[in-house]
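Quarterly update from the structural biology core.
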Amino acid sequence: MILVTGASGTLGRMLVPALTRRGSDVRALSRRPRGGAGPGGSGSFAWTVGDLGSGAGLDEAVDGIDVIVHAASNTRGQGKGDADAAWRLIEAAKRGGRRPHVVFISIVGVDRHPSGYYQAKYEAEQTIEAGGLPHTVQRTTQWFQLLDTFLKIASKSPAVPVPSIPFQPLDAREVAGRMADLATGEPMGRAEDMGGPEVLDAGDIARAYLRATGKRRLLVPLRVPGKSGRAFRAGVHTCPENRLGKTTWAEYLAAEYEA
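Predicted structure, tokenized:
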């Protein structure tokens, strides 16, 4: 039985069906009761209620669990409380008397990037590594789906701010497949970083999006200041040596907008 946190998020919505299609039985954690049909596949699926912030319901959520895929994060709060949430999850698993394999999704470069969210993610990584359970940490670069969402919001304005920063985006569906592989495999500690097939400047990413969506917007250069800006411009969040993703940004856009 596999417990998935963050099951209703960008990755979780793709990961759960990837697991059930492989025949895995999945329990999905939610702060509120949820219903609806399962994702299909030969594996079973059920929602369970639990709160990573308070710890309520976690003992029941981890009962009988062999693997925990921890994909939940306080993205709106820049990762605030993520390390504490990871600790509560691990402690609940230990109280259950089992030693589940914890698979954690992280970001490339978190150990070298001063951004607050990256540092919070790194702290959560360290919590899991020190938790005493078998674990696998998978770092990836930015996902197409998140860039798409950002550009969709930004392009509501006639001017779109674009920093001169490289990105190595990849499809969250490919990340879900990778996470499903890890969840059904042996613990690895730190897995190989996963990046997209190409490194692109943010301006090229934005221009390709505007062409695909038929929007005409002014791209305005934006300089990200301070240490975070220098780290982004240096590409700390990329891994050109690990181009494990197959789908390109252009292919993603064509599938989403040019059908």
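The first strand starts at residue 2 and ends at 5.
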